Amino acid sequence: MKVFVIGCGRMGAELASRLDAEGHQVVIIDTDASSFDKLPSDFKGTTLLGDATDEEVLRKAGIADADGFVAITREDDKNAMTAQIAKEIFHIPRVLCRIYDPLREEFYKTLGLEGLSPTSIVANLLKEKLEQ
Predict the structure, then answer these.
(1) How far apart, in whole angstroms, are the C-alpha atoms of residue 121 and residue 36?
(2) What value does the mean pLDDT of the chain take?
C-alpha cells in the first residue's frame, strides 16, 4: 500500500515508521526539515520538504497512485484542507485527518472527512478504564 503522511511530528513519525516497517511504501511530507530527525535511521520511505496544501508538491511526490492519506499536522485547518485535496482532487480511496479540537469533529464530518480526535479517543479510553 502506498500511503502519504502529512506532518512528521511524534505521531506522524511513529505512524510512518510503523507502516514502513510493515513494508508499505510511505511518503512523509513536512514543512520543517528537522522534523524528519524523528524518523528511525532505517526508514526506507520518502521524506519530502514542502507544503502539502500545494497540489503540485503532491503530484511530484506521486500522489496519483496513493492508496491512503493521513493528515496529522498540529493544525486542524491544514489537516482538513490537505485531506479535502486528497479526497476531492486526487480521489485517494482512504483519507484520514487528525483533529485536535473535538468540537470540530462534527463539522469535518459535514465536509465528508473522516477525522479522528486524539482528545476524544483518549478521554473515552480513560473513562472506560475508570469505570472498569
Answers:
(1) 26
(2) 94
Beta strands in the chain, from DSSP E residues, in sequence order: 2-6, 25-30, 46-49, 68-71, 94-98, 114-116
Cβ-in-10-Å burial (0-12, 13-18, 19+) of 16 comes to buried
Any idea which of 40-44, 54-58, 119-123 has the lowest mean pLDDT? 119-123
Task: Quote the cell numbers at residue 55.
Answer: 497540489
Per-residue b/e over 96-115, b at no fewer than 16 CB within 10 Å? bbbbeeeebbeebeeeebeb
3-state secondary structure of 7: coil
Q: For the chain, which domains are there? A: 2-131 (3.40.50.720)
What SS3 state is found at 55?
helix
For 35, how many CA atoms within 13 A lie in the half-sphere containing its CB?
Answer: 24
What is the per-residue pLDDT across 58-93, written as a single tens digit (0 to 9) for each?
A: 999 999 999 999 999 999 999 999 999 999 999 999
